[in-house]
Amino acid sequence: MSKAAEVPAGTDGKETKKGKKGLIIGILVAIMAIGAGAGGTWYFLKMNGDAAEEPEAPKPKPKIKTTKFLDLELFTVNLLPDDGSQYLQVGLTIKIKETPVEQEIANQMPDIRNRILMLLSSKKASEINTIVGKQQLSQQIAEEIKKGVKDEDLMTDIVEVLFTSFVIQ
Questions:
Q1: Cα pseudo-dihedral 91, 96, 100, 102, rounded to 10
Q2: How far apart (Å, rounded) are the C-alpha atoms in residues 89 and 82?
Q3: Between 3.40.190.10, 3.65.10.10, 3.40.50.2000, 3.30.479.30, what CATH number should domain 67-168 receive?
Q4: Strand 67-71 and strand 87-97: pairing?
Q5: Residue 153: is its pLDDT beyond 60?
Q6: How far apart are CA 137 and CA 57, in angstroms?
Q7: What is the pTM of this model?
């Protein structure tokens, strides 16, 4: 047999060397891609793992007491005589912090209403007709409410007294 007969047709030694080089390059590229993927995964897991190991302690939010409004029934009183007989009809709302002060005010309501009625009936129309007079009256009413609250810690939770209606006749 001749040498030409031994080598299959269409193949020579050069083509097998190219095939081996391509196979080696393909394997190297695949190894590099797997290594890069594994390295990237390790890096990102390490970064997230560090954050998970040392979580930042949440900062406690300062406890801000929100305000609430507590409406009182209308007050109608006779004022001290100034120019004849006059009366005052006033609607009040108490601005309070959301604490147990609301329950304390509810528990002491008869005493608080009495204090407010006594204060209002001791006024003359000329004393409370002006803006300044109304502001002073509002502060005085707030003080009377605070006196009616038995718990001294809750007194500071009464913010102010607001007028919702104010009629002098």
A1: 10
A2: 16
A3: 3.30.479.30
A4: antiparallel
A5: yes
A6: 48
A7: 0.61
